[in-house]
Amino acid sequence: MTQSPSSESSAPLDCAIPEASLESILCTEELQRRPSRPPDYEKENRALVKLASALADSPSTIFHTLAQTIQDITECDSAGLSLLTKDGRTPHIDGQRFYWPAICGKWNPHVGGGTPRNFGPCGDVLDQNRTLLFTHFERRYPYLMPVSPAAEECLLVPFYVNGKAVGTIWGIMHSDSRRFDAEDDRVMASLGKFASSAYQAWMHIEKLKVEVTEREKAEAEVRELAKGLGAKVRRLVDANIMGILIWNLEGKIVEANEAFLNMVQYDREDLVSSRMRWTDLTPAEWRDRDARALAELTKVGTVQPYEKEFFRKNGSRVPVLAGGALFEESGHEGVAFVLDLSERKRAAEASRRNEAYLAEAQRLSHTGSWYWNVSTGEVVWSQEFFAIFDLDPEKTKASYPLYLECIHPEDRSRVEETRRAAFRDKRDFEAEYRLLLDGGLTKYLHGIGHFEESRSGDVEYIGAVIDITERKKEESARRYSEERYRVIVETASDAVVCVDDSGAILLANPATTRVFGYKPAELIGMPLTALMPEFLRKLHEAGFRRYLETGQRHANWQGHEFTGLRKNGQEFPVEISFGEVTSDGHRIFTGLVRDISERKQAEKLRASLQATQVELARVSGVTTMGELAASIAHEINQPLTAISNNASACLRLLSNGSLDPEVLRQALKEILSDGSRASAVLARIRAFIKKAPAVKQVVDINNIIQEVLALVGPELRKNRVSIDCQLAKTLPLVTAHRIELQQVLLNLVVNGIEAMAGITDRPCLVGVKSRIDEPGNVLVSVSDSGVGLCSESDRIFTPFFTTKANGMGMGLSISRSLIESQGGRLWAQSNSPHGAVFSFTLPIVAESLP
Questions:
Q1: Would you place residue 712 in the very low, low, confident or very high pLDDT band (cuts 50, 70, 90)?
Q2: What distance in Å separates the CA atoms of residue 103 and residue 64, rounded to the nearest whole number?
Q3: I want to staple 180 with a disulfide (CB 3.0 to 4.6 A). Which of 73, 184, 354, 597 is the partner?
Q4: Three-class HEC string of 527-590
Q5: Half-sphere exposure of residue 612: CA atoms within 13 angstroms, side-chain side
């Protein structure tokens, strides 16, 4: 066995030159990236109970118990503590060497050794005040080379006392069969905090014991002093064991020893000058207590010790324990002892604070502690235990029967049998069960009990109950979420593929067989690029690598269209959406892949149908114009006839030689006017029939209505149809295809004229109105007083449905399509008392709002 680093031969190594840099032996950052095992809370709880038991049974072994616990819970080869000390035993922040008070495992023979403060792994941990993971630290610290067996890895966690890091707890792996992970770091830190609290509590208790012993000793001396003679008083005064003063009833301090003067921070000159009075040194709120003490003194000659306060010279206060006696010979003067309680008060406050910290820790962790002396029946529950069981500690006495009564009836016999078996075999036990509280409330608990047998033979158990209700809910919710996710993935019609950050496929759902032709098991481990054509693979790999390095995406992750490759080599269009999660330090990418072959075909068909519909609209317009040709010809013939008549008249006058220039000028003006009128009619017809691309523009719907009414004027007059035109003034503008709107209006007006053909019993009237509807759109309606809508009125917008003998059934269908393509809506309803009303809306231009 090699020599311990604390031996005499290792002393010069404190100044050894490092053989490697600190960075070269640290792998702390890797600790968080390593796969981490899930927390074992049950094992951790047992470890805490074990530490608590060590504190209750033998506090001095807390460090050894901690080392054993660390080795057990982290499964390391060696574990122990390094404490920075001055005296080689007690932790101290100013120590210059680390002392190894407890070691378990293969390094146990080195217990009691240590390392230097200024050059060693423990010192590096305290300097950085954080957990460090070393690998082969002997390469930097040569004095550790002789220590056997060598350390493959060493995980060191700071150990705190009174909020200051005064050491480390550590675990060592002597081979690479297992490595530390983040869970080891968490558990070691948790155990270290608990052990630190336990150690501090023990130190406070030991200190308090010493103070109590000193106080009892002082009180005994005071009682002896009260009975003694003046010489003994003087001897005690000069000894400065405690504060002693001679006083009189008027409030003067006649004499005092150095201990009292130091206590109140006065000097002997103050005493000699008579500037010190015990009545002035007493704060006002304590003077009633002094008055009672004086009454007791005058009555019996002595006063039992009581607590009070004195003013120091600087105005601060010092808590003291005071007692005294009157001198029998005078009855006017007396002696008093004063014991400084500052340290005891601080210790008591620290003890209360530690108890508060422990109670708060139990409250935050929902952990209640308990003690049960099976032999005597004594039961003790912590405050959090009462809270977990919804019991009032002021009204309820802790007892085992009450505990059993709170357990759910379905779990009670199982828990009782578990405990009886543990009692019978004198061993630890644990159980998970439910509580049934008032109002039907149910809680889930995890209980742990640790067996102890006292020196007197009493069987005792100390343990804890942990409220795991929220954990149960989270586990249930997680299982439900996982099951729901599994069902969704397995039943999804789209392929679902998960890949890791290397691009390898981790999971595939059954739909991948239909989409790509691969069975899910075939895809596991294959690269994602196997599902894409050759020409895309290098592009994807470069983009994926760039994303991992910079976070810059090379494509849209939501609804990106891509080219997929089936197992049979067929390329086909797909739509992909990807998401990313990080699990245990690894990045997982999940993608939904949808085969959009049918959608692409449908889009092509839809485009073809739209082109056909546009052509049909044009043909329908031409057909409508054909039906209006006769009426339009009549309107054109009127100006042409007038032109011909005026020209003939001019020729006759010229041949007779009697042409008046003024008559000629008037005839020519009429010829020009009639020519313009005929040209306007022809221009309207040409613009309507012309096959030109429709361009949206900002238009006034009232102007278009007026143009269409002018176009159908001859048809209205021919069929003796009246027109009722009611157009709203200051109507907002709309963005629309001018010619398409003309076609829709023309179609609706002509349909209204045809609907009234043959009607003789009532006036034939076409009404055209424009206004703003409630949502704020422009609304146009065309009504008639014809035969009205048929019984199949819901089908009138269906292509090729018609009630006309020679109709195609496309007019209304095309009209609706044209309106909808411009963001509007077209519908029909009955007109009262006769006929039908066709209405359509169009969105207005925002800039045209008043």
A1: confident
A2: 7
A3: 184
A4: EHHHHCCHHHHHHHHHHHHHHHHHCCCCCCCCCEEEEEECCCCCEEEEEEEEEEEEECCEEEEE
A5: 8
Q: How far is CA 748 from CA 47, 201, 787, 838, in A?
A: 88, 96, 15, 7
Residue 480 β-bridge partners: none
What is the C-alpha separation between 85 and 62, in angstroms, rounded?
17
The tens digit of pLDDT for each residue in 175-220 reads 988 899 988 888 888 887 877 776 776 676 667 677 777 777 766 6
d(CA 550, CA 544): 10
Q: Is 251 left (phi over 0), alpha (psi -120 to 50) or beta?
A: left
* Cβ neighbours, 10 Å, residue 139: 16
* Both tokens assigned to 254: 């006649």
Per the confidence metrics, is the pTM higher than 0.70? no
Best CA proximity match to 778, nearest among 834, 716, 710, 704: 704
Provide the mean pLDDT of the chain.
81
User: For the chain, first and last CA: distance in Å?
Assistant: 99
- Give the residue with greater pLDDT, 647 vs 77: 77
CA distances 50 to 94, 198, 462, Å, are: 31, 12, 9
What percent of the chain is predicted at pLDDT more than 90? Answer: 20
Query: Does residue 15 register a pLDDT over 50?
Result: no
Neighbouring CB atoms inside 10 A of 577's CB total 15
| Best CA proximity match to 182, nearest among 304, 319, 74 | 74
Continuous H helices in 265-341: 268-272, 278-281, 287-300
**Which two tokens mark 384?**
């959090």
What long-range pairs does 6-9 form, CB within 8 A, spacing at least 24?
A: 6/97, 6/99, 6/100, 6/112, 6/113, 6/114, 7/113
Domains of the chain: 8-206 (3.30.450.40), 228-347 (3.30.450.20), 366-473 (3.30.450.20), 493-591 (3.30.450.20), 596-692 (1.10.287.130), 693-850 (3.30.565.10)
> What is the rounded CA–CA span in Å between residue 512 and residue 503?
17
pLDDT at residue 105, rounded to an integer: 93
Q: pLDDT > 70: what percent of the chain?
A: 82
DSSP 407: B
Amino acid identity of 438?
Answer: D
Helices 597-656 & 811-821 angle (0-180, nearest 10): 110
Please report, for residues 60, 367, 392, 417, 463, the alpha-carbon distance to residue 385 in angstroms, rounded to integers and kept in the order given. Answer: 28, 7, 10, 22, 11
Q: What are phi and psi of 781, to 5 degrees?
A: -130, 140
Going by C-beta distance under 8 Å and a sequence separation of 6 or more, which residues neighbour residue 148?
A: 1, 2
